[in-house]
Amino acid sequence: MMILYSGNACPFSHRCRIVLHEKGMDFEIKNIDLQEKPDEVAAMNPYSQVPILVERDLTLYESNIINEYIDERFPHPQLMPADPVMRARARLFLFNIEQDLFSHLIEVKSGTSKVAEKARMIIRDNLTQIAPIFAKQKFMLGDEYSMLDVAVAPLLWRLDYLGIQLPKQAAPLLKYAERIFSRPAFIEALTPIEKSMRK
């Protein structure tokens, strides 16, 4: 059985929980207190971060790597495109999501008020920029739910909690977010702490 070492409020762990629930497979989640991480976390991941996936003698960390492994190991429903060109494009999008959005979260949470506000504005502007595509399509890659939707969903869920207010022109993005939030796997993947992030 797969074991996911997961943080209750960690957006990267949230991604992995979503994929495990989308696949509808047997797994165990071990909740890790991020303030007092047990020594085993550092033993499994040299960066001492969650999520960490353990299956038999395989140990993986970094949410996108974990999720792609789960997707290949349990191909139904498939979350990465089957076509090599589309799969490469999806990986590039995933990289962009990390650089343009998630890389600024640490500043929102831990930076000075000025640094945090600048990071919020960057995330807000980058999300607003992609909003128009959702006026034409249901999900990031078109009509099919994919790993890109999984990757961005935890951030969209946390916008209010992080103090990020989107402008009116981002309305298609907010409708898209509601589509993702209504998926059974997304709902099942939420921890009590994550549920409390939205009123």
Question: SSE layout and pairings?
Answer:
Elements: E1 2-7, H1 11-23, E2 27-32, H2 39-44, E3 52-55, E4 58-61, H3 63-73, H4 84-100, H5 105-110, H6 113-130, H7 147-157, H8 159-162, H9 171-181, H10 184-189, H11 192-195
Parallel strand pairs: 1-2
Antiparallel strand pairs: 1-3, 3-4
Helix pairs in contact: 1-3, 1-7, 4-7, 7-9
Largest sheet: 4 strands, mixed
Distance between the termini: 35 Å
DSSP summary: helix tally: 11
Strand content: 5-15%
Helix content: 40-55%
Short note summarizing the structure:
By secondary structure, the protein is an alpha+beta fold. It is built from 11 helices and 4 strands; from the N terminus they run βαβαββααααααααα.
Describe this structure in words.
The chain has helices spanning 11-23, 39-44, 63-73, 84-100, 105-110, 113-130, 147-157, 159-162, 171-181, 184-189, 192-195, and strands at 2-7, 27-32, 52-55, 58-61. It is an alpha+beta fold and 199 residues long. The protein has two domains: 2-77 and 190-195, Glutaredoxin (3-Layer(aba) Sandwich); 84-183, Glutathione S-transferase Yfyf (Class Pi), Chain A, domain 2 (Up-down Bundle), CATH 1.20.1050. A hairpin with a 2-residue loop joins strand 3 (52-55) and strand 4 (58-61). The longest helix has 18 residues, at 113-130. The relative contact order is 0.15.
